[in-house]
Amino acid sequence: MATPHQSLPDLPPPATQRGLLGWLRENLFSTWYNSILTVVIGYWLVTTLVPLIDWAFFSAVFTGEGPQSCAPEGACWIFVYERLGFFLYGFYPEELRWRPDIAFLLFAITVVPQFFPTPAVIKKWLAIFGLTGLPVAGYILIAGGHFGLEPVATSRWGGLMLTLILAYVGIIAAMPIGTALALGRRSEMPIIRGICVVFIEFWRAVPLITILFMASVMLPLFLPEGVTFDKLLRALVGITLFQSAYMAEVVRGGLQAIPKGQYEAAEALGLGYWRRMRLIILPQALKIVIPGIANTVISLFKDTTLVLIIGLFDILGAVKSTLSDPAWGNVMAEGYLFVAFCFWVFCFGMSRYSHRLEKKLETGHKE
After folding, report:
1. Which tens digits make up the pLDDT trace of 284-306?
2. What is the reported pTM?
3. Are 206 and 344 found together in one domain?
4. Could you give the CA distance from residue 235 to residue 11 in angstroms, rounded to a whole number?
5. Phi and psi (nearest 5°) for 92?
6. Are 136 and 147 in contact (CB under 8 A)?
7. Among positive and negative, which fits the CA dihedral 345, 347, 352, 354?
């Protein structure tokens, strides 16, 4: 028996307040309207997802030879399997696909370690290689024409390979241009500030599809006779300039969020303008706008599908072009689901990396 001054041990919480039952009661059945909403959504998920899962997996056909092996009640993933080479490489010669494979491997070696615990010095050198050496090595491997490699025209590039090229080059080029435009827009020199404002507002006011159309169709009309630019190069320039305007506004938001005291402290240290920006202001500003940068990068990656209108077959264009084959019948859902899955993998990966980087750098500025 406990004495008057001796406290009794704490009793365990009721069974309905802990474990799975506690979680369900707190999150799904906390009130009467939450309970009704949970039941309605649960019913909708069961009636929708169960048939979809059955169609995509249990009744689907994964192996076989040709469209005759497909079953009408399930998905025909044979279509994706047999056309996978075209979806990944477009019209790139099959006997030379080892070259983009090596470029993909270099890309994976550069990017994948950034998502896992890796020594900082290794991440640093991989990042430097990704910004400088990888674009050069990738171009030499894929385009050829150097070191005895057979040249392959950009008109034969396509599929996921072309999507990654457009996104990667656009991201690498748009970031420094956008940062320079953001600094220029906040400059105290009227001419520099005016030029940057006009550039940013012009490119933000024009849809990307119009820019691609102008670069592909209208630009050659204004060039001297006999002068031409590669269609892929024109698309890359248009995408880069378009995204750099949006990147500039994202970075400018970060610059405006830096307290004025940081600028004054940097001046008090006797640092010049560029050293102030490089050592003190930009590192803080870029940390603040990591979510905005990630959003712009993901948007750029998805916007690469618009190159279809100028005759470049990215992964969406490659899938869309094969759906017109009457031998396969109705495989539209399988083709577009494959494209959606590819985009989801890359966009989700970029999103998770930005969240992890934001958490690591403590960009939330919690009190």
Report:
1. 888 888 888 999 999 999 999 98
2. 0.84
3. yes
4. 68
5. -60, 135
6. no
7. positive
* Number of independent structural domains in the chain: 2
Torsion of CA 222, 223, 228, 231, to 10 degrees: -30
What kind and span of H or E run contains 286?
Answer: helix 282-288
CA distances from 325 to 156, 320, 322, 332 (A): 20, 10, 6, 11
For 193-222, give the secondary structure using H, E and C. Answer: HHHHHHHHHHHHHCCHHHHHHHHHHHHHHH
61 forms bridges with which residues in the sheet? 76
Read off the amino acid at residue 251. Answer: V
Helices 190-205 and 159-185 pack at an angle, to 10 degrees, of 150
Contact between residue 298 and residue 352 where contact means Cβ atoms under 8 Å apart: no
CATH of the domain at 243: 1.10.3720.10
List residues bridging with 76 in a β-sheet: 61
List of the chain residues with pLDDT < 70? 1-6, 8, 10-19, 227, 329, 362-367
